[in-house]
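Morning!

As promised:
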Amino acid sequence: MTISPSLAAGGGTALRAALIVAMLIVTMANSACTPSRQEMQRDVNSALPEAIARRSRWLGADDDKDRAVQEAVKALLQQPLTPDGAAEVALVRHRRVQLAYESLGLAQADLVDAGLLSNPRLALAAHFHQGSLPSQQAQPPGIAVDVEWPFLSVLFLAQRTSIAEARQNAAAARVIDEVLATAADARRAVVRHAAATEVRRLQRADVEAAEGNLVLVRENTRAGNQTPLDLAEEELAYQQALLMAADAERDATLTHEALKQALGLFGGEGDVDVVALSSLPALPVPDAAIVVDPAELEVEAIRRSYRLIAMQRDLDAAARDLGYASVRRFLPDLDVGLVADVDGSDVAVGPSVGVGLPIFNLGQGEMLRRESLLRRGAADLQRAAVALRAQARQTAVAHELNLRRSHQLTTRIIPQHLIVVDELERRLNGMLLFPSRLFAGRRGFLQARRQETEARRDAWLTRIDVEQLRQGSTPFMSPMSSMSSTAGSQANPSYSAQGHD
Amino acid sequence: MVTRRELLQTTAAAAALSTTLAKSAAATSSTSSTGAAPSSGTGRTWTPNGETLASHASRGARVMHLVAEEVEHEFCPGLKARCWGYNGRTVGPTIEVVEGERVRIYVTNRLPEPTSVHWHGLVLPNGMDGVAGLTQRPIQPGETFAYEFDCLRAGTYMYHPHYDEMTQMAMGMMGMFIVLPRRDPRPVDLDVVMMLSEWSVPAGGSRPNPLAMADFNILTINSKAFPGTAPVVVKTGARVRFRIGNLSAMDHHAMHLHAFPFTVVATDGGEVPPSARFPEVTTLVAVGSTKTLEFTAALDGDWAFHCHMTHHGMNQMGHGFPSLIGAELTQVKARLAKQSPSVMLMGEAGMGGMADMFEMEGMKYPANSIPMKGGKGPFSMIEMGGMFTVVKVRPPAQLDDEWYQHPKGTVADLATAADLAADGVVVPATGVSAKT
Ligand SMILES: [Cu+2]
């Protein structure tokens, strides 16, 4: 409802004053500056570990740099991927990072909006004198010009800007969290696929051993030294080996697909190769010095989680929004303006005021909604924090147990299998045992290698979890590109040379 | 009941002969014999790879001392084990006395468990029979017992524990007990003592397993497995006596001598009456018995003497799994080589040649084991182990350990085509497969 009463002449001064105020406000609003894409990306990157920051990009901000990064990624894809190489690729190629950046873009747009004043409204009205039709040309029609402007938007400009800023900060934190998660997921995908590739190789060797034994028993049954029962049992054992190998083939294919997905690749570009699991740096010995304390990791995770920070910032925005609404609800919509009435040669200029009457809607619903949003955000933050605490403790415990398991397999079980195989070989040479025992011993060794591969994979996966919880600040995975070049000398376990697998 | 005084009187007659024996034995402490036999006709026995227990005369008896103890024993080069024995050895030293002599034998127990000694086959007072629990209390570790009795009857006997017999004999506690006749009715040039026994030592292990009941993998003469057994070297035409005892846990042994028919002249029960003797080339020496056989080494050469149970002529090779004879193993070998490059699979053409493989450079075998070890022979490896030795018959001037030099034309060799043709022998173009 707008009331625009015509005011008497003498409003020239008022018009000038109003114009000056309007100019001031427009100037003020435009000077509430918003950061550029590059600036926001710089802010995001400053929170990231260096190795990640150098590849984390909001594409489209700088075409030349974008091209350089894409070239670097292409080069990375030409060689077997390390976990960190994969992280670099994913940061550029996986769209979830751009998705997060564009959410930041939206928040930025909202912030720009919040800093702008509402536009004034211009209304024109013509009125004709009674009895004089336009054709009669007796008396020209009168014209009313009404410029109205929702005045209170000026008062709430700062508040709206601060809400939008809080939301933008939340969006920035989400970008950081998303970038770290993308990098971690890419690393995990490499480790999983490297392990699956290794398991596939071991299961193929296992099939060879089972097949060797099958051929032995088949030929020996043909020669009359063994029975159809022996042969049937060996055939079964061989079929079981084939089944396990088929499972391993499937897993290797699936992890490869998952890797492509984690890297954001598709088509021919997706046929990427990964480094051997054994070429990753040696896992640390699980002694007291290296084990991650669950309580410490819990504290660190809570302190560093950008997901929680984003939620806190959202909560902050919601609180501000509630405060804004609680003030705003009691103020009526207030439009102020100027009315100019031109009637022939008679010009009347005067101020106009429009007031929304808060009779029916006192903003009760808006208040309830905002209160609920605030409480929902708080509950969600608490839920997420509790879940993160649990995740941190579980990760710390799993990390230690996985390290121990891997260590036991590497330093005890595998060497023992090698001793067993060596003794079996000695005995076969002395005709002290039937060759089936040696084939079985080799299969036992290969299965232990598989267990060891899986334990090593799990240890790496939990290390990546730990690193992600620490937001990439741990020195575990110092820049990957430097790791892969030294991996050969660090992580070639002594058994692989004599393992004949 | 025979009193001690009476016992002493009955043995007085043997005093003169026994004094001579005691002096010679005491002077050398004990006679060790691992290589060639002593010069013939001494009236004494010879234990290949063994020794004779030292003795001396004292207070009207021949006094000897047995110490039961753990010993480090080599069955054959390449296989040592911690066994139990007497006086630092297994087989225990041969006790040698003269018919009618009184013996006082001290037995010291240095084992971790009690023991006793039973004088197997000897007729003696019940309280000296050595059956722990039945005729005496066990000799506790650290204790020394005295056994005293008269050796009334000449013959070939044995001694062994009669406490935890299964364990102690499986561990090597046994020896021969020879009572020489005051006057040998058939003097021999060489009187050889052999104790047969069987052991279970896992390849790579180093202690006999007394719990074994069937899977014995080391068969020994005087606790030695071929090629660890000392050959018996005699001069052409020599009269030879073998006194063979068997204290194996579970097996009798069909002892077979090549070339020379022999006669069993006595058991531990006494002389076989001449009317009951008959010529043999193989005789079964049952567990817990002795047999004494005599023969004339009429022909020069290297003659095998062994148990004819073929598994008793092997060493620690495996038993109880399928053989590979006749199997086509080319593909298996290729696959095995991929899994284990350092193994050599054999056996599809029989199990010969294993001994050669054992000698191959770089082939690995279980430590401390003699799985396929044969002995080096003048023509090739002798593919035997276990209860096997060689009787070397030579002219008196050549009594040494060297291989027999066969006169030209007396060794089996490749038949010439001319001989085959002359005798109308046609060799089939293919072997067995032609018939199948
Ligand atoms: Cu036998």
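The CA atoms of residues 200 and 209 of chain B lie 5 Å apart.

Hope this helps with the figure draft.
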